[in-house]
Amino acid sequence: MSRFAPQIAPRLKAALAILVLMALVPVAAHAIGDPFLSVIANRMLVFAIAALSLDLILGYGAMVSFGHAAYLGFGAYAVALGARWGVTDLLAQILLGMVFSAAFALVTGAISLRTRGVYFIMITLAFAQMAYFFFVSQGSLGGDDGVALQGRSTLLGLSLDGDVTLYYVTLGALALVYAGLYRLTGSRFGRVLKGTRENSLRMQAMGYRPFPYQLVAYVIAGCLCSVAGVLLANLTEYVSPAYMGWHRSGEMIVMLVFGGIGTLTGAMAGALVAVGLEEVLAAFSEHWRLGFGLALVLVVLFSPEGLTGLAKRLGIGGKHG
Fold first, then answer.
1. Predicted pLDDT at 6
2. I need a labelling partner for 245 at 20 to 30 A (CA). Which of 9, 132, 145, 260 fits?
3. Rounded to a whole number, what is the distance in angstroms from the first to the last CA of the chain?
4. For 239-260, how does the pLDDT look when each residue is reduced to its tens digit (9 = 90+)?
5. In whole numbers, what is the pLDDT of the chain averaged over residues?
6. CDD domains from the entry (predicted)?
7. How far apart, in whole angstroms, are the C-alpha atoms of residue 5 and residue 21?
8. For residues 54 and 243, what is the distance between their CA atoms, to the nearest angstrom?
9. Mean of pLDDT values over 263-275
10. Is residue 273 part of a domain?
């Protein structure tokens, strides 16, 4: 175990440092008298969960999905549908979102994983667009305009109406998702998944069938992304098919590029930086996408491994954080 300690400790410390800093945001927001800061930070946490889920299949499994946002939408609509069915508990809504996502991921993943490269990208996009247009066609749920929620969910009888309460629930969910993925990627399952990413033929020669591992990872990633969707719906108190749009999937990939693909801490940090940068640039100009694109180009040119690569060069963090 000691042989691996130098690699494991730094990435855990980095992740813990991020979580502790984010835990202090509501305190800082109260101190400066700007409660909206907590709302922005909550959005950052939500997309950090989504980015972590995508990193499982893209970073560790080399499955470039351009339809991952579909699961964000499934989670969000689980809140809207759950409220209509009298289910207001957050945990029950998360379970409902996971059921929707698991069913969709199992069917579409079994088909998509029979393709490779650009064909896999396009077929995941096609399935996500099918889900998008399905909800657009649902007039009872507001169609393309979406639907406003009557209120936020409850958690074991506790109301989440307060922004600070919802914030710490989201932070706790992020910590649990990170811890779960950390254990998963470090397990035998994770090692097989990474081996398949590096050389699928060699893994087959060793007696492993890549397909079941990839499909299970695909389903797990979809379920975890739906958790982010449930929390996003509670944050905005609004649900829309726009959550499932292809551009949202692209934004998640950009988050991984910012942080470093194939590193859990990098995925989390990349989401925080991407959402934060968007908010900062939007405060200065309505053409913030120009500055955002320039920042992305600079990252790709000078630090292809994102923030993780930069941390390595500065002697901070481990190899696979």
1. 43
2. 260
3. 17
4. 999 999 899 999 999 999 999 9
5. 90
6. TM_PBP1_LivM_like
7. 24
8. 15
9. 93
10. yes
SS (H, E, C) the chain: CCCCHHHHHHHHHHHHHHHHHHHCHHHHHHHHCCCHHHHHHHHHHHHHHHHHHHHHHHCCCCCCCCCCHHHHHHHHHHHHHHHHCCCCEHHHHHHHHHHHHHHHHHHHHHHHCCCCCHHHHHHHHHHHHHHHHHHHCCHHHCHHHCEECCCCCEECCEECCCHHHHHHHHHHHHHHHHHHHHHHHHCHHHHHHHHHHHCHHHHHHCCCCHHHHHHHHHHHHHHHHHHHHHHHHHHHCEECHHHHCHHHHHHHHHHHHHHCCCCHHHHHHHHHHHHHHHHHHHHHCCCHHHHHHHHHHHHHHHCCCHHHHHHHHCCCCCCCC
Residue 321 lies in a domain: no
Q: What's the number of domains the chain is made of?
A: 1
User: Does residue 137 belong to any structural domain of this protein?
Assistant: yes
Average pLDDT over residues 182-205: 90
- State the CATH number of the domain containing residue 227: 1.10.3470
318 lies in some domain: no
pLDDT of 278 above 50: yes
Q: What is the mean pLDDT of residues 68-93?
A: 94
Percent of the chain with pLDDT over 70: 95
